[in-house]
Amino acid sequence: MRKVYKNIFGEVISKNKATKLDEYHLYYYESDSDILKEIEFINDESIYNINYFLHEGDNEEEILEYLKEKSDFFDIEKKETTDGYIISTNKLYSLSVDDQPLISKTVFTIDDPENFICSQVIDNETQEPQLEKTVKCWYTTDKSGEKYAALECSYEEDGKLELAIDKTSDPDNEQNWAHYDYETFHELQEQYQMDISYYKTAALLPKEAYQN
Predict the structure, then answer these.
(1) pLDDT of the chain along its 212 residues, tens only?
(2) Which residues contact 94 (CB under 8 A, 6 or more apart)?
(3) How far is CA 157 from CA 152, 161, 202, in A?
(4) Measuring CA to CA, which residue among 27, 29, 34 is closest to residue 50?
(5) Is-contact 138 132, C-beta < 8 A?
(6) Fewer Cβ atoms within 10 A, N terminus or C terminus of the chain?
(7) For residue 142, what are the contacts with CB-CB under 8 A and spacing of at least 6?
(8) Contact 168, 149 (CB under 8 A)
């Protein structure tokens, strides 16, 4: 493993400088590569959080035991790609509260891996999504060229659209945002030239992703 020390602003610093700071981050990369395996968040020389990134060939059970020895609070993330989408599965552990993790799945498009289009919470027992906790977003840019979530959607227990908030007419003024639900979704669709049917239900991926 190759270790890289960074300050809280993400700037690379020396180990000597890091250990003199109240807080710093320690990145672990696979030797001779840029593959990130782990980030330790350290405050007063104590690890208060860990992000671990699973890669092909990793044994999750072994990783879990390894992380339990280092911290009570950590996150295990695994990324998959399918048909132009990135699916990130996160298992967030807080051992002082519960042995079971909070599991979520987040979807990004490959051409925009920073802004999620869907986020779901997964039930630990059934491994099925809790559809009423699903959030979906569609993005565009404002007049200054800044990307923002122009469409934000929430859902009911059966997965049908509960509320779609359309901000495109006036992104900065909440009073001018338009609101739609499952029954009036067709009115929202009429505002867009592209097909936005993905936002009508809580399905994790757009229908195109299931065509293979």
Answers:
(1) 899 999 999 999 999 999 999 999 999 999 888 899 999 999 998 999 999 999 988 999 999 999 999 999 999 999 999 889 999 999 999 999 989 999 999 999 999 999 999 999 999 999 999 999 999 999 999 888 899 999 999 999 999 999 999 999 889 899 999 999 999 999 999 999 999 999 999 999 987 544 43
(2) 72, 73, 102
(3) 17, 10, 9
(4) 27
(5) no
(6) C
(7) 148, 171, 172
(8) no
Long-range contacts of 113-118 (CB under 8 A, 24+ apart): 113/86, 115/139, 115/147, 115/149, 117/198, 118/204, 118/205
Q: What angle do CA 109, 114, 117 make, to 5 degrees?
A: 45
3-state secondary structure of 143: coil
| SS3 assignment for 25-83 | EEEEECCCCCCEEEEEEEECCEEEEEEEEECCCCCHHHHHHHHHCCCCEEEEEEEEEEC
Task: Note the pTM of the prediction, 2 decimals.
Answer: 0.85
Strands 73-82 and 46-54 come out as parallel
Q: Which residues pair with 102 in a beta bridge?
A: 92
Which pair of structure tokens corresponds to residue 194? 């592209």
